[in-house]
């Protein structure tokens, strides 16, 4: 019988320290919103593979489509021999993305690659070098994505120099004490001090910051950014890797902002656990790179595309957009009902919900957050944190979660916080 402890010891010997591990357990199997480890312990999963499993672990429909695809073929390289699912999914995403007019889509494998390709495409279109991103934003671990990311520890330290030119503007959020006026002022300062807007290719922002703390872009800030981009010919990119694909009560979070991006990314829950990402954008921008300038060996794996097409069906058949709103409201009501001064700001759109833990003076309490995660783990609930100060708990439970299991998880949180 394998034990977690034995596997941890083996892991430690052969895996680098930089690859962290949140919980000292090894998965044996998982179903919808539950995971069992190699010792048979059961955990409720409020992390969903970091927001990848909006349709749950091993959804039967998705699993079946993957099996069918594996029996037909597993890889041809889409740039060598293409397949119908590539066109099918591109058509669906172009139709559903909140971008009007002719739209095109490109498939890659990871979220970081989707972001990288947005930058390549924006530069090819504008023939400009500069990129603006935001403090607290998170875009991936490749060199350019790391440069775009607005958080030094643990993502950037010792890994430089970073590709540039990249400049970080402030991200406005009430809970960060940054107003929209201050954020716009910081952008203006970049244009005064660092780079002329005529040399900026793109501005990239998450409609809701993921790793940064689930802070939301408001419609008014999105409108201001859209106007600045229009004025200076800058490509506006929405990074929906984490907030997209039904998490927020709409398929894409940007749908709720009232302005259209020029390019956008999606990944994570797009294929319910199979690695595929996409760039969707205005056709005239998407077509800027030369033939052969885009792609990748695994770009749009047929296995992942079969899964993604099934994910779209599951979202529709199981009304997961409505379900997302119900889950968010349920969690928020529960947390408010606890009536605890240790729970600070609660923010959510659909089921993309985070809450801050604060000390008696209302200051960020990272220790209490770590304690809640540890105690929850001991009671069989997996929780993740986020935010600049590490004091926010973010809920990424599958949207397919059973009501009883959702409640069981919430009761664990409630029990620990009230104790
Ligand atoms: N962008 C955002 C907003 C993300 O949350 C992430 C992943 N956390 C990425 C990009 C990178 O995705 P991946 O890890 O698949 O490269």
UniProtKB/TrEMBL annotation:
Keywords: Aminotransferase, Pyridoxal phosphate, Transferase. InterPro entries: 4NH2But_aminotransferase_bac (IPR004632), Aminotrans_3 (IPR005814), Aminotrans_3_PPA_site (IPR049704), Class-III_PLP-dep_AT (IPR050103), PyrdxlP-dep_Trfase (IPR015424), PyrdxlP-dep_Trfase_major (IPR015421), PyrdxlP-dep_Trfase_small (IPR015422). Its cofactor is pyridoxal 5'-phosphate. It comes from the Bacteria. PROSITE patterns: AA_TRANSFER_CLASS_3. GO terms for biological process: gamma-aminobutyric acid metabolic process. GO terms for molecular function: 4-aminobutyrate:2-oxoglutarate transaminase activity; identical protein binding; pyridoxal phosphate binding. Gene3D superfamilies: Aspartate Aminotransferase, domain 1 (3.90.1150.10), Type I PLP-dependent aspartate aminotransferase-like (Major domain) (3.40.640.10). Belongs to the class-III pyridoxal-phosphate-dependent aminotransferase family. NCBIfam families: GABAtrnsam. This is 4-aminobutyrate aminotransferase.
């Amino acid at each position: 019988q394998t034990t977690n402890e034995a596997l941890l010891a083996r892991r430690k010997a052969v895996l680098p320290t930089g690859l962290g591990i949140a919980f000292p357990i090894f998965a044996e199997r998982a179903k919808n919103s539950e995971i069992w480890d190699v010792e048979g312990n059961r955990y409720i999963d409020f992390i969903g593979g970091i927001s990848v499993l909006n349709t749950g672990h091993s959804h039967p429909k998705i699993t079946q489509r993957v099996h069918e695809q594996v029996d037909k073929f597993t890889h041809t390289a889409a740039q060598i021999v293409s397949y119908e699912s590539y066109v099918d999914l591109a058509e669906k995403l172009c139709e559903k993305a909140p971008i009007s007019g002719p739209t095109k889509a490109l498939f890659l494998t990871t979220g970081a690659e989707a972001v990288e390709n947005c930058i390549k495409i924006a530069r090819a279109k504008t023939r400009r070098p500069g990129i603006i991103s935001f403090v607290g934003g998170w875009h991936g671990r490749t060199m350019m994505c790391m440069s775009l990311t607005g958080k030094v520890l643990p993502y950037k330290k010792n890994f430089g120099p970073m590709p540039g030119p990249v400049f970080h503007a402030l991200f406005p959020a009430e809970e960060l004490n940054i107003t929209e006026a201050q954020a716009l002022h910081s952008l203006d300062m970049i244009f005064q001090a660092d780079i002329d807007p005529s040399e900026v290719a793109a501005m990239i922002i998450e409609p809701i910051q993921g790793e940064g703390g689930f802070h939301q872009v408001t419609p008014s800030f999105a409108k201001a950014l859209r106007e600045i981009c229009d004025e200076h010919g800058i490509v506006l990119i929405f990074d929906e890797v984490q907030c997209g694909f039904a998490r927020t009560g709409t398929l894409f979070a940007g749908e709720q902002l009232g302005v259209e991006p020029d390019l956008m990314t999606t990944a994570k829950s797009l294929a319910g656990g199979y690695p595929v990402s996409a760039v969707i954008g205005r056709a005239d921008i998407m077509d800027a790179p030369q033939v052969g300038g885009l792609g990748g060996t695994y770009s749009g794996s047929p296995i992942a595309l079969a899964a993604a097409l099934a994910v779209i069906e599951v979202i529709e058949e199981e009304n997961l957009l409505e379900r997302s709103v119900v889950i968010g409201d349920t969690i928020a009501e529960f947390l408010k009902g606890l009536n605890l001064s240790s729970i600070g700001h609660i923010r959510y759109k659909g089921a993309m919900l985070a809450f801050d833990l604060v000390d008696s003076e209302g200051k960020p309490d990272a220790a209490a957050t770590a304690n809640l995660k540890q105690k929850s783990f001991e009671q069989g609930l997996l929780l993740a944190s986020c935010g600049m100060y590490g004091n926010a708990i973010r809920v990424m439970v599958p949207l397919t979660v059973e009501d009883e299991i959702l409640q069981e998880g919430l009761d664990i949180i409630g029990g620990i916080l009230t104790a």
